Amino acid sequence: MFDIDFSRLIEQLLYQPDSPMIFSSGIFLFLFLGFTLIYNCLSKADTLRILFVTLFSYYFYYKSSGFFFWLLALVTTSDYFIARAIGGVKERGGLAKTLVFLSLVLDLGLLVFFKYTNFLGDTICTLLENNGIHVPSSITGSYLKAVVWQPRDIFLPVGISFFTFQSLSYTIDVYRGNIKPLNRLLDYAFYVSFFPQLVAGPIVRARDFIPQIRRPLMVTDAMFGTGVFYIIAGLFKKAVISDYISVNFVERIFDQPDLYSGLENLLAVYGYTLQIYCDFSGYSDMAIGIALLLGFEFPKNFDSPYKSASITEFWRRWHISLSSWLKDYLYISLGGNRHGKFRQYFNLLMTMLLGGLWHGASLNFILWGGIHGVLLCLDKIWHSLCGVLSPLTYLPSKKTPSPTLPHNGEGAPFGLGNITSSPLWGRDGERVFLLLGGIITFHLVAACWVLFRAQSFGIAEQVFHQIFYKFEPQIFLQWCQSYAAVGSLMLLGYVLHFLPQTLSDKSKVFVTKCPLVVKALLIVIVIFIVIQIKSSDVQPFIYFQF
Questions:
Q1: Handedness of CA 417, 419, 422, 425 (dihedral sign)
Q2: Is residue 518 situated within a structural domain?
Q3: What average pLDDT does this structure show over 159-180?
Q4: For a FRET experiment, which of 174, 328, 331, 506 has its CA 20 to 30 Å from that of 358?
Q5: Based on the domain organization, do 180 and 273 belong to the same domain?
Q6: End-to-end alpha-carbon separation of the chain, Å?
């Protein structure tokens, strides 16, 4: 009756290097339906349910990176036993520090090898060559006139930057006494490998997630409705807006920017600014939504970042789990703001430089992080110099800390706290300042994204050259006609992003409270739209590379 090609089915279930499994792919939706049925059947059997989710998470990672799931197992097992050993040490002295150092060496060592070997080798050889240093040849015994680095064929496992950071934060928190080490290896494996956030975040802290592992499974109507809303929003942002404008416009411009006018290059910059937000926040939304359907709560990872009136506010709103991680485990560890202004600015700059390097093994990313570090320092200097002359002032937070922000009393990420109004300006002056600050901040962030997207400094230079010297504004109407669909989606994306928060909240409430049939219909509509506009295979998430 049914002619099923089992060989084709088995092929789909095996690892495919060219098409890693992501939330917006058909194979994941198919598997997730079966997973949900078994998961709900195990609702009363905690240990079996945790084991089942862990095994599914490892399979999910296998579909993303093949047999490199052994790296995930290695990091999980080693940090579990290291944390147990740290917990058994009464004094936070030599032995405990040695164990933390061991965790650092293991986790960061794996990250450096798989992600940065070729970058470091090429950089070192270039520096040696530029300084006239020659190395002996092992073949001829003579000295080479130039140092040549042959890149190694090293596979970059998907999500290694995320699960190493997550596991490392656990051992550090145990050392600091913030949490107690887990007694079950299975529970820790469940925490590190939990598939909604495994390959691209958000980076979930152990103190927020571990208390949820063994609690009775309960998915309320509000959690279910909110989860469906986040899945719909994330799928729309990723598969409709981000993928379409990327394939049909942004990639063309950034591949050969010199073939297009400055106006087209500028619109491509705006397009990529929207694309990377919709791509990454879309993944985070789907991860949060799927976790809610399974009874787990993740902290918010994006908070309308392009509404920011300053670069500091941008980093309070963009990739919150990473920015707070960098602050808690890098910025604070370097000294934070405890050793004077100069040291604070140095710590902030180093944090952002290393944050840029975390995003990719390229000088482009380091420069991107360095520019953001300089901008953050300048923002802090501006507010320290102007004081009440500025319409907005950053004050230390006295409110109950948010689960998405640091818990150490130093305010918002990187030492800045809540935003308060200055009495000298009034409401009108404050609105004007916010508008101007928002426009300037948005364009500074967009300009930095050029370094993030361009394959080389040369490509980035071409983009800026076209914008400043060959703008050609007269072709705008022609562009609107030629790229009507792209322009419409870009406009829609920005309108949705800049909607007042009240309207966004109302739409969430509507989806949450509407009947199950309506929720299902909304999902079907989004999937139908995805199918209709899809012009290529499913695009991997941008942050897979990190």
A1: positive
A2: yes
A3: 90
A4: 174
A5: no
A6: 46
